[in-house]
């Protein structure tokens, strides 16, 4: 805009100078009274046509910090008014309020301090115990309010009772194959542990193991410790938090709904789509960390805060009301297809690099 103003103002000055010189080239006109009269007439005609000159007008030659939006004319000239932009301070860095629980994490800590259970959890409530590969896991659907430590390699075919929150802790060096997850069920993956949520049992096919699974994380959390490995099929996250605290996390797809949060302090790969499809979800990518997804679609009252690298193999879309994207200084969001911002109050603040290989489409944004 300052360049346009500079050209317009310079052209106006040239026009005025030419008019003045053209009207002042007769030898007989160089008497003082005639010159003064012409100058006064020129001044009067200019003010009548354009109004008074803005005393702060710099004609486009001011510094970058002093150039203004002032126009010379005081009358309505049909020019558009200066647009009102968001204050960048309106988009604030989200705060992770998750507190790391004080669980035992190693096998020795668990076996020294926690009671063993051979897998009979039917009708148990508010108890703490550990299971291992020798446990015959039965009746978890009827257990509630349990704290279950996993030692060695264990398979859970279903989650615990949804009435009261239970927590499953996968200890360091151990592996949990989880085929079912219920509401209010928390999972804590200790550093160096493995959680496999990518398979399920198809009871219509004789209980055969298939993939990818489809699990709902509802009103609970999944915490992934540093150096852990977590795999999943299709995750639907509702009123829940997923915290990747230094893990390698891979999922087929992930959908965040209803105030859900995903905090990435590790490496996350979503082989298909990462989607927020309902209100007030948050995706946070920490400094030096990376999120890769086939497509990223952000719907309605969502915040994406990137301080690392985001690699979208397809399209990044921010649609349907109040989506805020912030890309920090020196950080990269790479979009190999199109970047789409449309429909009501979408805001993208880029202090780093957005490398879009395809089209950039803006509509009501």
Can you offer a commentary on this structure?
The protein is mostly beta strands and 365 residues long. The protein has helices at 2-22, 32-50, 107-113, and strands at residues 128-131, 147-150, 153-156, 166-170, 175-178, 185-189, 194-197, 200-202, 208-210, 214-218, 221-224, 229-238, 241-244, 248-257, 261-264, 267-276, 282-285, 290-299, 302-306, 309-312, 316-319, 323-327, 332-335, 339-342, 347-350, 353-356, 360-363. Helices cover 13% and strands 37% of the residues. The chain contains three helices and 27 strands.
Give the key terms.
mainly beta, 14-stranded parallel beta sheet, 365 residues, 13% helix, disordered N terminus
Gyration radius over CA:
32 Å
Q: In one word, what is the shape?
A: elongated
β-strand percent reads 35-45%
Mean pLDDT figure? 81
Q: What's the story with the biggest beta sheet?
A: 14 strands, parallel
Q: Which oligomeric form is depicted?
A: single chain
Please count the beta strands (DSSP E, at least 2 residues each): 27
Output the helix-strand order.
Answer: HHHEEEEEEEEEEEEEEEEEEEEEEEEEEE
Given helix and strand content, the structural type is mainly beta
Number of helices: 3
What's the short version?
With 365 residues, the chain is mainly beta.
SSE layout and pairings?
Elements: H1 2-22, H2 32-50, H3 107-113, E1 128-131, E2 147-150, E3 153-156, E4 166-170, E5 175-178, E6 185-189, E7 194-197, E8 200-202, E9 208-210, E10 214-218, E11 221-224, E12 229-238, E13 241-244, E14 248-257, E15 261-264, E16 267-276, E17 282-285, E18 290-299, E19 302-306, E20 309-312, E21 316-319, E22 323-327, E23 332-335, E24 339-342, E25 347-350, E26 353-356, E27 360-363
Parallel strand pairs: 1-2, 2-4, 3-5, 4-6, 5-7, 6-11, 7-12, 10-12, 11-13, 12-14, 13-15, 14-16, 15-17, 16-18, 17-19, 18-20, 18-21, 19-22, 20-23, 21-24, 22-25, 23-26, 24-27
Antiparallel strand pairs: 8-9
